[in-house]
């Protein structure tokens, strides 16, 4: 029952993101907007509930399956990317580099001294 409450919270933020996207005509996915709203709420709150953590962990374990339809869809519109492969390659390389650097920074910031990062 606890995990269902966590899924309900995630669904509510997803729907809130979709509503904001439609009302404000934003060019960003409603899921991303909902995730930003949830992140802001959790930052203000300062903690995460067990139900939300449990539901999030369950979704992370199947994250590859959630991303797969979007990845497969790119192959069907590959012709639309003709002539833009350099820009796509640069964006992928820059995005990957920024993602790795951000992950490293966050790990150093929140791991604490017991992780061996600081003395």
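^ Assign residues to that structure.
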């Amino acid at each position: 029952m606890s995990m269902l409450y966590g899924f309900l919270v995630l669904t509510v933020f997803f729907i809130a993101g979709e509503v904001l996207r439609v009302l404000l005509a934003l060019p960003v996915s409603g899921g991303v907007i909902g995730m930003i709203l949830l992140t802001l709420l959790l930052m203000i709150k300062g903690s995460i509930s067990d139900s939300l953590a449990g539901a999030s962990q369950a979704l992370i374990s199947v994250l590859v399956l959630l991303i797969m339809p979007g990845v497969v869809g790119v192959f069907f519109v590959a012709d639309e990317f003709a002539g833009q492969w350099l820009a796509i390659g640069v964006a992928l390389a820059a995005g990957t580099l920024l993602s790795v650097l951000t992950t490293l920074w966050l790990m150093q910031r929140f791991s604490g001294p017991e992780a061996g990062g600081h003395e």
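Helices lie at 2-24, 30-45, 50-61, 63-76, 85-111.
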